[in-house]
Specification:
mainly alpha; 0% strand
């Protein structure tokens, strides 16, 4: 899941759902990614990391003149 030298972030280990903050405040929650026990909807996405060239080409095709992006702190300080 983590690629390109990026370290884990809280977003990687935070389970999804309306009870996620209740789950992480339990004393036995240890921030281990457990896909059998919890769902992680943020693990699915547009996958810009692998498709940035075609995504930027699509933006140009749509007439976009600028693009804003951000870099995760977990890439700067893995």
């Amino acid at each position: 899941m983590v690629q390109g030298g990026r370290g884990l972030s809280i977003a990687d280990a935070l389970p999804g759902g309306k009870d996620r903050f209740k789950i992480v405040s339990q004393s036995d929650f240890d921030w281990t990614i457990d896909t059998d026990k919890y769902t992680y909807p943020n693990h699915e996405g547009i996958d810009f990391y692998h498709h940035y060239k075609e995504d930027i080409a699509l933006f140009a095709e749509m007439g976009f003149k600028c693009y804003r992006f951000s870099i995760a702190w977990s890439r700067i300080f893995p």
